[in-house]
Amino acid sequence: MELRSHVKLLLDSMPAETSAVMPPAIELRRNQAARLSRLTQHTPVWDVKDSTVPVDDREIPIRIYTPREQLQLPLLVYFHGGGFCIGSLDSHDERCRRLANELGWKVIAVDYRLAPEHPFPAGVEDCYAVTKWCAENAPKLDVNPSRIAVGGDSSGGTFVAVVALMARDRKTVGICKQVLICPNTDYYQSHLPRKYDSYSEYGSGYLTTERGLSQFWSWYIENAGDASHPYVSPIQAEDLTALPPSLVITAEFDPLRDEGELYAERLREAGVPVVAIRYDGTIHGFLGLFADHDESQHAYAAMAQFLAD
Questions:
Q1: Does the annotation mark 154 as catalytic?
Q2: Is this prediction's pTM over 0.90?
Q3: Mean pLDDT for each 10-residue chunk of the chain (309 residues)?
Q4: CATH number of the domain encompassing residue 14
Q5: Active-site residue, from 154, 214, 246, 296
Q6: Non-local CB neighbours of 17 within 8 Å, separated by 6+ positions
Q7: One of 233, 258, 284, 296 is an active-site residue; which one?
Q8: Which domain range does residue 10 map to?
Q9: How many domains are contained in the chain?
Q10: Pick from 46, 69, 71, 235: CA 20 to 30 A from residue 103's CA?
């Protein structure tokens, strides 16, 4: 399929890509915060509040979205994207508001530690710790302990896959379902041979670039020996059995498309119930970039149906 007209319009308006070195992560975060500061409208949600989760000698910030006054709501613990290095509660606030309303579930967003200051496994351990805490404190949160799901986009989708593996391996949290939106599932560096055709086809000219992905991974992974660890590259896990039913969403013009779809296939081969949906004509991050267009509306509806079934 050709690019959707609104996607092409955005891409045509972007400056040409250069070979310049990417700015440091702290500058990328500053630029993102400046863009967010110009947003003045937020989708109304019945209740939104910030809190923290105590872990060891520190606290992990979270934001709790409650769509309505009802006892024992199901819970979606959400991990934002941003290449393991950028993103925040604010960067995905609008998405979480919409998820809470569309799903009718309580949503808890996790402000996990970011690389390069906090490389692997800091961020994903934070996501796991919050998910475990939610299960242990279900009565306090007024959520149904048997209906706790995890979801996330891009690198947050990586954390979804890994948290599900951790919960299974550590025999702690009963995760009912997982939602992976355009996930990274395999470590990537531009100097290594390409494993997936989508990198060569869509790694330049579609906002999310090979160069950018390679840089983010290099900030996240300090020890190259960790690259094949299943908690880094879940697609490298030898055993994918006994994982929760999974929804895997991909985009046609996304360098991460092939690894996401292969992960869905590997889950299916391991006996995990899987719904895999590719959105044609669009790019990585479409849920945030084109929130009011058909593909995003369909994706929210698909998530609601998957979690409700």
A1: yes
A2: yes
A3: 94 77 88 80 93 94 96 96 96 96 97 98 98 97 97 98 98 97 95 91 95 96 94 98 98 98 98 98 96 96 96
A4: 3.40.50.1820
A5: 154
A6: 204, 205, 209
A7: 284
A8: 5-308
A9: 1
A10: 235
Indicate if 37 belongs to the active site.
no
Per-residue pLDDT, 309: 85
279 in Cβ contact with 249 (< 8 Å): yes
Q: What is the pLDDT of residues 17-44, one digit of tens each?
A: 765 678 899 999 998 888 887 776 789 9
97, 175 Cβ separation under 8 angstroms: no
Q: What is the pLDDT of residue 20?
A: 65
What ranges make up the beta strands (E) of 202-296? 246-253, 274-283
Single out the residue of 106, 197, 95, 212 nearest to residue 156, CA to CA. 95
Q: Which of 88, 97, 78, 214 is nearest to 153 (CA)?
A: 78
What single-letter amino acid sits at 46? Answer: W
**DSSP state string for 156-209:** HHHHHHHHHHHHHHHT------EEEES---S---TTSPP--HHHHHHSSSSSS-
Nearest to 43 by CA among 307, 300, 279: 300
Catalytic, 254? Answer: yes
Cβ within 8 Å of residue 203, ≥6 positions away:
209, 210, 213, 255
Q: What sign does the CA torsion over 264, 147, 304, 108 have?
A: negative
**CA triplet 256, 109, 304: central angle to 5 degrees?**
70
Phi, psi for residue 187 in degrees, rounded to 5: -55, 140
What is the per-residue pLDDT for 18? 61
